[in-house]
Design a protein that fits this description.
The protein is α+β, with helices and mostly antiparallel strands. The protein has a single domain, classed as Thiol Ester Dehydrase, Chain A, CATH 3.10.129.10. It contains 7 helices and 6 strands; from the N terminus they run E-E-H-H-H-H-E-E-E-E-H-H-H. It has a 6-stranded antiparallel sheet, sandwiched between helices. The longest helix is centred in the N-terminal third of the chain and has 9 residues. The radius of gyration is 18 Å and the shape is globular.
Length: 195
C-alpha cells in the first residue's frame, strides 16, 4: 500500500524546510539472521528489527526537488550518517536547510539535511548536494577519522579489503512494482521516468 498522504513541505522561520511526519515500514522483518529481524537485532543490542536506511532516504527526494528543482534528479546526491535505528512504523520527519538566496545561479550547491524521530532523537544527519559530487561531505570526513575497529559485531566475519566474487543481480519489473507499492514517498518520476 502506498503512502497516500500528500507530500507538503513546511517552511519554518529559521531557514529550515520540513517534510511531513512519516511511518516507514521494516520491509525485511522476515529476513532471518539480518539486522531487520527482531531476534537478531535484539541480540546485537538494538530495540528491534531496524528499518533500512534506504527507506529513510526515500523521504528526501520530494523535499530536495522542492529546494533544488529538477537539478536534483540530474546531479543530486545524499550523504547521511545514521545515528539511531528505528523500528517498524516509528514516526520520523525529514528536514533540510534552505540554500542561500543566490542558489538558483550556483552550479554546485550543498545543504544540511537530517531526519528526526517523533521523540526528538536524531535518526540521521548529513548533506544533500547538486552539481559535482561533494568530495568534502561530512560523511567522507567522518570516514577519514574512523579508527581501526576492535569490537566488530555486525561485520565480524569480514576483514578490511576482503574481496568477494561478483554476483549477477536482476530487478524484475514485478519486484519493482511491488517495491513502488510500499515506497515512503511515491513520486510520478519513479513510474514515468525523470526528465
Amino acid at each position: 500500500m502506498t503512502n497516500e498522504a500528500t507530500f507538503t513541505a513546511t517552511r519554518r522561520g529559521d531557514g529550515v524546510i520540513a517534510g511531513p511526519m512519516r511511518e516507514p515500514r521494516n520491509l525485511e522483518q522476515a529476513l532471518k539472521g539480518s539486522i531487520h529481524d527482531d531476534q537478531m537485532a535484539q541480540k546485537l543490542g538494538l530495540r528491534g528489527g531496524t528499518v533500512a536506511g534506504s527507506l529513510h532516504m526515500e523521504q528526501f527526494p520530494p523535499l530536495l526537488t522542492h529546494l533544488f528543482g529538477r537539478r536534483w534528479w540530474q546531479t543530486g546526491g545524499i550523504s547521511l550518517y545514521f545515528r539511531y535505528a528505528t523500528t517498524d512504523r516509528e514516526k520520523v520527519q525529514c528536514f533540510a536547510r534552505e540554500p542561500g538566496a543566490n542558489s538558483a545561479t550556483q552550479e554546485d550547491l550543498k545543504t544540511e539535511i537530517w531526519i528526526d524521530h517523533e521523540s526528538g532523537q536524531r535518526v540521521a544527519e548529513g548533506t544533500a548536494s547538486v552539481g559535482k559530487p561533494d568530495m568534502q561531505s561530512p560523511l567522507r570526513e567522518r570516514l577519514g577519522r574512523v579508527p581501526t575497529p576492535s569490537d566488530l559485531r555486525i561485520l565480524s566475519d569480514l576483514e578490511a579489503g576482503q574481496q568477494c566474487d561478483p554476483r549477477p543481480a536482476r530487478a524484475p519489473l514485478d519486484r519493482l512494482k511491488e517495491r513502488l507499492s510500499v515506497i515512503v514517498e511515491p513520486l510520478p518520476d519513479y513510474e514515468e521516468g525523470s526528465k
